[in-house]
Design a protein that fits this description.
Largest sheet: none
Number of strands: 0
Shape: extended
Helix content: 55-70%
Oligomer: single chain
Amino acid sequence: MRNIRFLALAGLLVALSSWGFLVHRTTAQLAVYQVPAELQPFFYENLDYIVRYSVRPDQRRNSDPSEGPKHFIDVERFGPNAA
């Protein structure tokens, strides 16, 4: 019983350690809903494309060993007004 609990907890921690494709897609879709009104027609028209390809960086990271270090952006390196 103790081993089952440990394995369940370990599995949960692994699952929670990454966002996963579903969360990336959901975040991309929610971001489109927040664009300024004058840009909405373009983004709404391309919503399916944006959502579908929002996971492309993660797919590339998983298939290209050299992509991992390039996958993240350290905004702090660009100063206080970068974001």
